[in-house]
């Protein structure tokens, strides 16, 4: 099935790959040596750049003489056969490393595979003139993990409630148009190129909430998946599908989806064989089960390991992966019952299953225990499964962080999460592993299970994508920075988010005056902190309008089956999640965080109300009371937005007028929304507490 009624008539914005980003490479004498599909992609990029900027391009076989080249991109001689470098033949552990050397201003990029050569090309593009300047160098670059994935929540049909893209804030789908896969996939090609430039190597192309039509991508509509996979293949990216656990019923006519039923298992074996026969480099399946109404193994009295392992056996012959999401909780809770705590759910369900999942199962864990809030503690599940492959799941699309109407750069948040240590900062083998270490398998734990000798099985990273068919890809042009930073942090989780922000600005606005770069950095660098200031305070979540999740609604979720999040009354605010008197959630952490979160005296201010119910007069470590903190931060947050707008206004005439107009429109909405947040939150807690603002500001 095909269709095309693209909503946006303007050509998509070039994002971080405008023509100007290739000026340094394109003005030089460049040689590409080697064979393979992705080497052909590298050669096409170089040929276009040198033609545009007056350089010279040569395509050679490996081992041929190279004279006077300023840049050589070459495969290692041992890896030159087409069979060795064909992406369709790569297993799960494709070598994407490359060696970068510079001698007297001449650069050589050498890789064992054409996937590595493609990464090396974009490394040179990213460096620009700096690639050729400076002292001699000899560097080896390799990704922290082989699994660097994006999950698209796109629907083939327009869902009556969620639309074409669930939690999408950038228009319609780039893959589907109201019931059909697009006949013109040229925009998907441009998207794949952007992702390749930042190191993404896997993409799931449909919603984890698999509706009836979308389920047929696995069977009747597989031919359209073949077309999409062919586009991504040219850029070293493997395609995955989200599948319904009930597919044997929905698609196969069986009466059950019981994972221990042999007919069910055989149905999945046959389904997998069809998929890999059509797409030899297919990546695997993403599964949301027993969550928010999605079917799963609980219906048959089975565990999540039972369900995941049955699917894993079906895809194992093809080196396929099963991404099994750990987002499992009771969304039919009784808000009157304070012992029920949604935050506990993932740990309670999955910790007992550690070590029981097959080797090709990746348990995909949201970074926090709730749902992508602006501030949550890092999920204890990430530390609780030492013998299971885990993927850290982030959300690039800004569901709870301004929905790409607000300028919010999430790189600093992700960097904090990636660098978080569950155990002591120092200890055996050079210290406690970070979250990034646990996801990539690169570190040993100082404790738990106590020997300090186990090595975590390698998992990786996954995130919900934020693009659509909007002219600027992400609705707000500045939200492109989040997609860029995610890809770069997947490649190297130790990178500085401020440096990544400057990288993105430099690539997106090449040749722009320094004032533009400085202004964009000023706007975005602390924008996550600013958003937190004018929205939910001190670790409280879900103070948003139910359903669409935009704008303030302090009690919107407080008395619903989805969970209770602030327990505000006349005396205080916060959820008691301590072991001593509360839900016991704090006890899911290893020491020292178990004790840190349990105690009022040591719990960090930014998470205080996530772990404790306290009086409004409780004094924070900052020296101010909870109620005064609420007033101060909400007023300061609005002032910061006003300063962001002023900084951008000073340079807005120096960029593309279309981009400037879109940013101005988004800033107007951000200021309106931030003011609404300030006034509603402040008024709510003034009325609850009866304690006035000590600075005498107007509160309604």
UniProtKB/TrEMBL annotation:
Its EC number is 3.2.1.139. Keywords: Carbohydrate metabolism, Glycosidase, Hydrolase, Polysaccharide degradation, Xylan degradation. Residues 138-473 form the Glycosyl hydrolase family 67 catalytic domain. Residues 429-452 are annotated as: Disordered. Transmembrane segments: none annotated. Signal peptide: none annotated. Residues 474-697 form the Glycosyl hydrolase family 67 C-terminal domain. GO terms for molecular function: alpha-glucuronidase activity. The keyword Flavoprotein does not apply. The keyword Transmembrane helix does not apply. InterPro entries: A-glucoronidase_C_sf (IPR037054), GH (IPR017853), Glyco_hydro_67_aGlcAse (IPR011395), Glyco_hydro_67_C (IPR011099), Glyco_hydro_67_cat (IPR011100). It holds the Pfam family Glyco_hydro_67C. Belongs to the glycosyl hydrolase 67 family. This is Alpha-glucuronidase. It comes from Promicromonospora iranensis.
């Amino acid at each position: 099935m095909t269709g095309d009624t693209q909503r946006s008539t303007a050509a998509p914005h070039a994002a971080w790959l405008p023509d100007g980003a290739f000026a340094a490479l394109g003005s030089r004498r460049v040689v590409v040596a080697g064979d393979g599909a992705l080497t052909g992609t590298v050669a096409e990029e170089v040929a276009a750049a040198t033609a545009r900027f007056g350089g010279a391009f040569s395509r050679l076989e490996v081992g041929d003489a190279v004279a006077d080249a300023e840049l050589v991109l070459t495969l290692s001689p041992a890896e030159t056969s087409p069979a060795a470098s064909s992406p369709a033949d790569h297993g799960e552990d494709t070598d994407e490393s490359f060696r970068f050397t510079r001698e007297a201003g001449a650069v050589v990029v050498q890789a064992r595979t054409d996937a590595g050569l493609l990464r090396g090309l974009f490394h040179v593009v990213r460096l620009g003139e700096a690639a050729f300047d400076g002292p001699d160098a000899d560097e080896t670059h390799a990704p922290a993990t082989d699994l660097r994935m994006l999950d698209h929540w796109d629907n083939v049909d327009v869902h009556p409630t969620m639309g074409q893209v669930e939690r999408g804030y950038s228009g319609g789908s780039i893959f589907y148009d109201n019931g059909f896969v697009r006949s013109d996939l040229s925009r998907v090609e441009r998207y794949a190129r952007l992702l390749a430039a930042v190191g993404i190597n896997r993409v799931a192309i449909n919603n984890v909430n698999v509706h009836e039509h979308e389920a047929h991508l696995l069977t009747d509509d597989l031919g359209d998946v073949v077309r999409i996979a062919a586009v991504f293949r040219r850029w070293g990216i493997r395609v995955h599908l989200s599948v319904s656990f009930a597919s044997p019923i929905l698609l196969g006519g069986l009466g059950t989806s019981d994972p221990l039923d042999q007919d069910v298992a055989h149905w999945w074996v046959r389904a997998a064989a069809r998929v890999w026969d059509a797409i030899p480099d297919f990546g695997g399946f993403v599964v949301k089960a027993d969550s928010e109404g999605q079917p799963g193994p609980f219906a048959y009295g089975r565990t999540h390991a039972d369900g995941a392992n049955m699917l894993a056996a079906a895809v194992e012959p093809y080196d396929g992966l099963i991404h099994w999401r750990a987002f499992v909780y009771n969304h039919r809770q009784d808000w009157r019952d304070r012992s029920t705590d949604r935050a506990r759910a993932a740990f309670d369900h999955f910790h007992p299953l550690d070590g029981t999942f097959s080797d090709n199962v990746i348990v995909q864990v949201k970074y926090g225990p709730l749902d992508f809030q602006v501030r949550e503690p890092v999920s204890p599940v990430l530390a609780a499964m030492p013998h299971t492959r885990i993927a850290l799941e982030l959300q690039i699309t800004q569901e709870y962080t301004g929905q790409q109407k607000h300028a919010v750069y999430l790189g600093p948040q992700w960097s904090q999460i990636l660098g978080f240590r569950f155990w002591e900062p120092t200890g055996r083998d050079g210290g406690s592993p970070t979250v990034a270490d646990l996801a990539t398998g690169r570190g040993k734990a100082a404790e738990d299970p106590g020997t300090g000798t186990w090595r975590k099985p390698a998992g990786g990273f996954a995130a919900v994508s934020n693009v659509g068919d909007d002219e600027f890809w992400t609705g707000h042009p500045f939200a492109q920075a989040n997609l860029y930073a995610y890809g770069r942090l997947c490649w190297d989780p130790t990178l500085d988010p401020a440096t990544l922000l400057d990288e993105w600005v430099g690539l997106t606005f090449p040749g722009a005056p320094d004032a533009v770069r400085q202004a964009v950095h000023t706007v975005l660098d602390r924008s996550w902190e600013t958003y937190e200031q004018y929205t939910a305070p001190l670790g409280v979540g879900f103070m948003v309008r139910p359903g669409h999740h935009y704008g303030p609604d302090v009690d919107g979720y407080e008395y619903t089956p989805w969970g209770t999040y602030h327990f505000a009354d006349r005396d205080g605010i916060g959820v008691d999640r301590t072991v001593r008197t509360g839900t016991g959630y704090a006890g899911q952490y290893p020491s020292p965080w178990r004790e840190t979160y349990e105690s009022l005296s040591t719990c960090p201010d930014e998470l205080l109300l996530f772990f404790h119910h306290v009086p409004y007069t409780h004094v924070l470590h900052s020296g101010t009371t909870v109620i005064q903190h609420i007033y101060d931060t909400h007023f300061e947050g609005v002032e910061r937005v006003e300063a962001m707008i002023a900084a951008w206004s000073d340079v807005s005439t120096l960029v593309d007028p279309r981009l400037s107009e879109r940013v101005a429109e988004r800033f107007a909405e951000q200021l309106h929304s931030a003011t609404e947040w300030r006034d509603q939150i402040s008024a709510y807690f003034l009325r609850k507490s009866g304690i006035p603002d000590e600075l005498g500001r107007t509160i309604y």
